[in-house]
TrEMBL record:
PANTHER family associated with the record: ENTEROCHELIN ESTERASE-RELATED (PTHR48098), FERRI-BACILLIBACTIN ESTERASE BESA (PTHR48098:SF6)
Stated name of the protein: Alpha/beta superfamily hydrolase
Organism encoding this protein: Flavobacterium croceum DSM 17960
Matching InterPro entries: AB_hydrolase_fold, Esterase-like, Mycobacterial_A85_antigen, TPR-like_helical_dom_sf
Domain of life: Bacteria
């Protein structure tokens, strides 16, 4: 309940964290103008060189605010990457069902459903990617009929989305088989999140259970799958439970080093602490397809493991990685100073601390701290 209240509050407050733009796009496929809403990250205007993954939210008129709230909170803690969120407005009375129209015989998009399918991939995405700074990592999310509709992009030989968020999908003809079949053969990293509420109707739950069973039988290492059966939720409240779970699943490799990860996977190593951090970032980049910026907190965790295990020789490797991921800051020189200090070379350590003093601060490292460290070592230097 606390999680839901927090997300609801964030949906209505904290507008300073991001910029929401109302827009519309004329679709030749639909022969109509469609309203969309774009939420830009708080850093969008501050960092001219930074690009962002794109999240397409169907039923954007009620789903987008929930995604915005979850992202605002997680972005504050740097748990999830910033995203460009595009809400596609669909009138709840008729339009969302027309957009999701399928052929009853083939089970594939038909009529306006086929036009809407082409609109999303052939018009909306190109429009967003030509107008905003985007990365080639795309997510699509939907609820009941629109969730099921989003799965049709998996039927293509080269799916245009990297991740799919299915919340209580009303699966169409043979979709519980076809989605699993497509995921079994997909060659690139793909994320699939599936959620159902215990308050959903039995027919919906039965088909989703079959899909869950079929996906769990897959042996495709390229697919990252998570299923949630949300207790004490109905068909509508399940959305607020599922959204953070889905986002944290998709971006699990992006998340900073936690206390559990430090205690269970890092400090227990006998060596290779810096290699662990390198591999963490490389694994995330391979899965997500975009470069992951280094975190100061991750470097602190590796520093703590080096100190605890007296692996001081790794400070030199950590300095090299810091210079790569935090260029033009004092972090690399700080770790180099720690390395020389551990070797007992006070002169070179003091010099590195002095060099660090001339560079921009990072994290809790300050110029005063670097100057104090250098002064402390001067007394140890033999004249």
């Amino acid at each position: 309940m606390k999680k839901i209240l927090l997300l609801v509050a964030l949906c209505f407050f904290g507008e300073g964290f991001s910029q929401k733009i109302m827009d519309s796009i004329y679709s030749k496929k639909l022969n109509a103008t469609r309203d969309i809403s774009i939420t830009l990250p708080s850093s969008y205007k501050k960092d001219k060189n930074k690009a962002y993954p794109v999240l397409i939210v169907l039923d954007g008129d009620y789903m987008q605010s929930a995604f915005d709230g979850a992202l605002r909170y997680s972005n504050y803690w740097d748990d999830l990457p910033e995203l460009i969120v595009v809400g596609v407005y669909q009138n709840q009375k008729d339009e969302r069902y027309e957009d999701s129209e399928i052929d009853e015989v083939t089970g594939l998009p038909h009529g306006k459903g086929a036009q809407f399918f082409e609109f999303l991939g052939g018009e909306l995405l190109p429009y967003i990617e030509s107008k905003y700074k985007t990365l080639p990592f795309r997510i699509i999310a939907g609820h009941d009929v629109t969730a099921a509709f989003s799965n049709f992009y998996l039927y293509k030989d080269n799916p245009i989305f990297n991740a799919y968020i299915n919340i209580s999908p009303e699966l169409t003809l043979d979709m519980e088989k076809n989605v699993a079949s497509r995921l079994s053969n997909i060659p690139r990293p793909t994320f699939f999140y599936l959620a159902v509420a215990d308050g959903d109707n039995n027919k919906t739950k039965e088909k989703i259970a079959t899909l869950d069973t079929n996906i769990k039988e897959l042996k495709n290492p390229a697919v990252s799958y998570k299923f949630d059966e949300i207790k004490n939720a109905n068909h509508y409240s399940v959305v607020l439970h599922a959204i953070p779970n889905a986002l944290y699943h998709i971006f699990s490799s992006y998340q900073p080093i936690s206390n559990a990860e430090y205690k269970e996977k890092i400090v227990t190593l006998t060596s290779g602490y810096v290699d662990y951090l390198k591999n963490k970032y490389e694994t995330s980049e391979k899965a997500l397809g975009f470069k992951v910026s280094g975190r100061y907190s991750d470097f602190q965790a590796i520093e703590a493991a080096i100190v605890k295990n007296k692996a001081n020789n790794e400070f030199e490797l950590l300095a090299q990685l810091a210079n790569k991921m935090f260029p033009k800051t004092m972090l690399g020189e700080y770790y180099l100073a720690r390395y020389y200090e551990a070797l007992g070379d006070a002169k070179r350590a003091a010099k590195s601390y002095q060099t660090a003093f001339t560079l921009p601060e990072v994290g809790d490292l300050t110029k005063d701290m670097m100057l104090e460290k250098a002064d402390e070592l001067k007394g140890q230097i033999k004249k």
